[in-house]
Amino acid sequence: MSEQDNKKIIRWLLVVSGLIMIMVVFGGFVRLTRSGLSIVEWNPISGVIPPIGEEAWQTEFEKYRQTPEGMFINNNMTLKEYQEIFYVEYIHRLIARFAGLLVVIPLFYYLYKGIIPWRRSAIYLTIGALFGFQGFLGWYMVSSGLVENPAVDHFRLTAHLLMALLLLALTMWTALRHVHHFPPVINKGRGSLPYVLSALVLTILVIQITYGGFVAGLKAGWISNTWPLMAGRWIPAALFAQFDTWWQNLISAPVGVHFVHRWFAFVVLGAAVWLYFITKRHAYSPNVHKAVVYFLGLVGVQIVLGISTIWFSVPIVLALSHQAVGLLLFMVAVYIRYEIVHTPIPEQIVERATAVAHQTGD
């Protein structure tokens, strides 16, 4: 692959990564404005064109009024108000379609031209297939709020979010491989503390983001507008009151989900501090050390944003900023993991130098 073609693929993957981030943040805006259930059908092709004319709008509005949200939440909504939330969701779906085309069209072009060899095409085809699956998963999420409850299922919403994270990680990781011209994986690093810790930090962060999805789906952000206490207590009295089993209260009850999400943030902070001191002991590249410092700083910013979002009862600007910083944290964590996986620690460098010296008789 020529350097020019390599740069084309890097730019393509980075643009796709940026679009994924935009879709996730815009998806948060859709949720916060209660616009996600405004379009009650999934028409991947014909849905590109919005309703045209008074009659078409009235037909679409009538479909919405037959949904649980239209009947019980927005039963007094006017057509103009409906058009406002319709266009928010319409733009969201339009961005998703555009992102899908931006993946598929360049991919097939690069395959056709041989820029991406077929022997290396698996990861790119996987990204394309997952984009298609993500579209289905989005509709699967929306459909859960059109039958009985005027809200989407929080597990489906979180699955949709986690699929976006997987896509972001795959595109970023692949772009980094192109940046570094497909370096070999340093297998001997497996088992070292930085290697294990970078994976642990990423796992802990994904758990926290998962709980962020639960909070969003259950609208648990409004449960309490005080911090550090909830309802005047460190441990709210209703923490295990909604369900019979304790674990259900921690994954499906708004109080339990909110409680876990607000305090698990400090587990992320502790892991970030640990990663900082461990990597500081090793002579990684300056980029790794800078990334770890950025990660630690972003965790601090994220905690402040989270507390502020609680205090001010989930204003849109703060809530979306909180979500955006969460994505940045994830990207930095993926970058740190990539660098540590593909970089030998100093002890390994010494081992290799010694082995070479013995082989050459020096």
Structural class: mainly alpha
Low-confidence stretches: 347-357
What's the β-strand tally? 0
In DSSP terms, counting alpha (H) and pi (I) runs of 4 or more, how many helices?
Answer: 12
On the 0 to 100 scale, the average pLDDT is 91
Q: Outline, from the CA principal axes?
A: flat
What's the Cα radius of gyration?
A: 24 Å
Main β-sheet, in a few words?
none
Report helical residue fraction: over 70%
β-strand percent reads under 5%
Distance between the termini: 38 Å
Order of helices and strands: HHHHHHHHHHHH
Q: How many structural domains can be distinguished in the coordinates? A: 2
Structure explained in plain terms:
The protein has helices spanning 3-32, 54-65, 68-73, 79-113, 122-143, 154-179, 193-218, 246-251, 254-280, 286-311, 316-341, 346-360. It is mostly helical. The chain folds into 2 domains: 1-182, no CATH class; 185-362. Helix 1 (3-32) packs antiparallel against helix 11 (316-341) and helix 6 (154-179) runs antiparallel to helix 7 (193-218). The longest helix has 35 residues, at 79-113.
